[in-house]
Specification:
Blueprint lengths: L20 H34 L3 H25 L2 H10 L3 H27 L2 H7 L3 H33 L3 H24 L11 H25 L18 H32 L4 H37 L3 H28 L1 H8 L3 H7 L6 H20 L4 H23 L13 H32 L4
């Protein structure tokens, strides 16, 4: 390894400031595809649940839409705080400071534990979410059962996030992918058995609550497998993760983690709630509109896994370059990751737009739900490209530890334009809204505009950060 090149856990990466787009793609791809496969397996949890409960009842599907929106709101925001571990460890790993990187993992465990306590309490008592959704008694009862099961799942999910964030930062995503695929293999049959019941075994049909129970079992199994690997795999030895117990909370390390993680969590929370809140508001329109939205949302979430994987890989490599002092290579690789992500998003978005009718038909045969879902996907191409742009730009900024300004951008674009504008269109606030933009389509139109604005602003911020880096005198 040449002087100044980063430590990447056995992967040789170029630091040349003259690397081409193809060069960067060859080094982003090996990190991105395991993240993609792993995230697909995570998303498949929700996809399986959607497919199963769609065949159970419309009330179960509506409860899943509301419950999933509530859970995602809590989990994703807290996950973002925990994932501040990734850029911190990435820079330490790039600088060759393995023991320091390991100590950060112990502090992240304390962060995850504290957030688990708060999050599980919110899930066990979901009255605010039910009030916002204005759910009827039948749907509300199903939502409570589903979220109570997920309250037991959340601690395992956040602790596993520590493992995932660390492995991503040290260029070892395949270990995470293997465990996530194992969790999916356990989740699928469990969900089917618990949703529809197994009369021969005396197991009753639990509907959407069964999905939550299956998720909890799968996530705890996944976490225990991760702990076993950390103790057994010699790869982790230089990081000193085990053998001395859990480090005590370190005030300075926790402060550094939270200084980066709280804005990250806030940004991700705003991003996700700007999207997930649509289900809560659309549920006021009835079970058919929210069921159609749930299908469209699940499909868009599936597409999002591609730019998310590319963003993770780009952030990891950029952080390692920064830690190694290869700032020009970090900038070049970041731009290449951005271009690759937006290009792939354009291809996928257009493909889904053209094939949206048969794709929606895979989810349900209910003509009313299909009719409710199809108009929402009219915006999928622009929506997906803008989503890719803002995601990759935001992740690159995290590699540079720039997290505060993106929060303001997300508030204005995703809450202001997306959620606020969507509410005004969907419910015809003030009158004069065209019929085609009332109801669920209004939320999707406004959400697309919000993502476009966020993408433009975050890309501009990323370019400004790069210019500031170029103007700094060499050390």
């Amino acid at each position: 390894m040449s002087a100044g090149s980063p430590n990447t856990g056995g992967t040789t990466l170029p630091v040349s400031p003259r690397a081409t787009l193809a060069d960067s793609a060859r080094h982003i791809t090996p990190l991105a595809w395991p993240v993609f496969v792993g995230q697909i397996s995570v998303l498949a949890f929700g996809t399986i649940d959607t497919l199963l409960v769609a065949r159970a009842s419309a009330a179960d599907l509506a409860a899943l839409a509301v419950g999933a929106a509530a859970y995602i709101t809590i989990f994703i925001g807290f996950m973002g705080v925990v994932l501040a571990l990734s850029p911190i460890v990435g820079q330490l790993h790039g600088a060759g400071r393995a023991a320091a990187a390991g100590r950060q993992v112990h502090q992240a465990v304390w962060v995850a534990a504290a957030l688990s306590l708060l999050g599980s309490t919110l899930l066990a008592f979901p009255a605010p979410f039910l009030a916002l959704a204005q759910a009827g008694p039948e749907v509300a009862g199903k939502v409570r059962g589903y979220l109570l099961a997920l309250a037991f799942s959340l601690p395992a999910s956040l602790m596993f996030t520590v493992y995932r964030g660390f492995n991503t930062a040290v260029s070892r995503p395949k270990a995470v992918m293997a465990l996530q695929l194992g969790g999916l293999a356990l989740k699928a049959p469990l969900s089917a058995a618990l949703v529809f019941g197994v009369p021969a075994l005396g197991l009753p049909a639990l509907g959407v609550t069964g999905c939550g129970i299956a998720t909890a079992i799968a996530m705890w199994s996944q976490l225990l497998a991760a702990l076993w690997l950390v103790r057994r795999d010699p790869f982790y030895t230089p990081f000193a993760l085990t053998g001395r117990g859990l480090d005590r909370p370190d005030r300075s390390a926790l402060h550094a983690h939270l200084k980066l993680g709280l804005p990250m969590g806030a940004a991700i929370l705003i991003e996700v709630t700007g999207f997930s809140s649509m289900a809560l508001f659309i549920s006021r329109l009835g079970t058919t509109p929210v069921a159609g939205h749930q299908i469209a949302a699940n499909l868009v979430s599936l597409l999002f896994m591609v730019p998310l994987a590319l963003a993770n890989a780009t952030m990891t490599l950029a952080a390692q370059r920064i830690g190694a002092g290869a700032t020009e290579a970090a900038r070049r690789l970041s731009w290449h990751g951005f271009v690759i992500g937006c290009g792939v998003a354009a291809v996928l978005g257009l493909a889904v737009l053209l094939a949206r009718t048969p794709i929606v038909g895979l989810y349900t045969r209910d003509a009313a739900i299909i009719a409710a879902a199809l108009p929402l996907l009219a915006w999928v191409a622009v929506f997906h490209i803008a989503d890719a742009a803002q995601t990759i730009a935001a992740f690159v900024l995290r590699a540079y530890k720039v997290t505060a300004i993106p929060v303001l951008i997300f508030v204005a674009a995703l809450w202001g334009v997306g959620m606020g504008g969507g509410y005004m269109l969907a419910f015809n606030v003030g009158g004069g809204v065209p019929a085609a933009l009332r109801g669920a389509p209004g939320f999707w139109f406004a959400s697309t505009l919000g993502l476009v604005l966020a993408g433009l602003l975050l890309t501009g911020l990323m370019a400004w950060v790069f210019r500031q880096q170029e103007q700094r005198p060499a050390a």
